[in-house]
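Objective 1b: paired records.
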Amino acid sequence: MSEGEILRGRVWRFGDHVDTDVIIPVRYCNMFRKEELGPHAMAGADPEFASRIAPGDLIVAGTNFGCGSSRETAPVALLGAGVGAVVAASFGRIFFRNAVNVGLPIFESPEASAACQAGDRLVVDAARGVIRNETRGLSFPFAPYSAQVAEIIAAGGLVPYVRRRLGLPAEE
């Protein structure tokens, strides 16, 4: 995601307290690359999710998305599956930080979470702090990222951000 990018996708709906064991079950946590983890994303809730999602689709969830263990593999798996972003009423604190660290866009909006249904089409304008549900004709404001968090996500995560800041070549 580059700064100011507009995200568009279909909603995949999940409920409250989706923990990291649901996002990526522990049996897959011996893998680390997003290409390996992606096919198993959300397997604890919907074993077919990764095979049905289209690149850029969005997860919309309730409260405390990403609660549970601090496994960084959870947001990496979502990226590997092609998830464009996660919108939730709230996030587990460690999941939020891990998502930023790996470059997964996440947006907190209790109002959008409550109003979106599976299959709705969303447009997220991260720079302006607006989520539009095109299916239902509704818009929801949210607090945009700080400048530094926006830069980290735009860079693709913390490691690429630091490499860029230090003038190092991108990892292969």
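Objective 1b, second protein:
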Amino acid sequence: MTTEIYFLDENNIDFNIVDRAAKVIRNKGTVIFPTETVYGLGASALSGEAAGKIFTAKGRPGDNPLIAHVSSMNMLLYLIGSPLSDSAVKLIDKYWPGPLTLIFKKSRKVPYELTAGLDTVAVRMPDNKIALELISRSELPIAAPSANISGKPSPTLPEHVIADMNGKVDMILCGSKSRVGVESTILDLTGDVPVVLRPGGVTLEELKNVLGSVKVDRGIVGGSETPKAPGMKYTHYAPDADMVIVKGELENIKKKIQELVGDSIEKGLKAGVLASDETVEYYRNCRVISLGSRTNSKTIASNIFEKLREFDSMGVDIIFAEAFDESHMGMAVMNRMNKAAGFNIIEV
């Protein structure tokens, strides 16, 4: 497959290119586009055939549901099977467009492939002008998981999607670096109490400020046999190298990681350390990458996937990662890191 690649400026969009991409979507093709969270691999959300092309391009299991991206309330109402609840209205007013996916009971118009046979549908409105124009000009909702090979770190830069998907999709629309850097928060609104199924760009604390009572699904900690939302069942975000997270007091983390680096060197392995600005100068005899300051979880979140991919380019054999505080955006950061490490965690 020959992939058309275009570079767009979100503040000065070439609408002729977006119209070409919208035509691809209407013809059941695949288009990668930028969002504020990560880059998305898009196809018509109303066509099982089109959704199937997403699974093929990513190598994604067919029982992993997709998110439908909309540009208007009319698109949302077309997809869902009941009126909006008060909670949904409050969240949409505050966080759409933005990094929040809401789960509703689906209408009969939603194809089986989009939801992996579930009776619910996940929907969000992205906060990116290129994405919104593409959806609007396509005149239909767009299904879009992250635009990476399934299981690998999600793409936040154009070079990531080109490396992973050139030759596997019809078109790639390149914009700037994704601002949020981790996928959207997924909130299930179909029960009596809203449940976070995936932490992301809207924090648990923010959701509680709007809604009051909000639960967190157990699958965030240890996985889920039946995925209720994208990313709950399978190991994700993994770099090429094995990854180990070290958790505890920061001084203990530093000493343990340096010890592990020494053990790795004795075994003839090239070690990498995923550190922070506060600790980056501490480590020796290894490749060290900082995610940013521990005082700024938003910066850490925006860098996590980009830095994991940097280790791939360095060819390290094993990565030792400092654990971070799990409040606010830290919950999303540690969720991605835990999955990248396959929950291989050492507590010190």
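Residues 241 and 315 are 8 Å apart (CA to CA). The longest helix spans residues 297-314.
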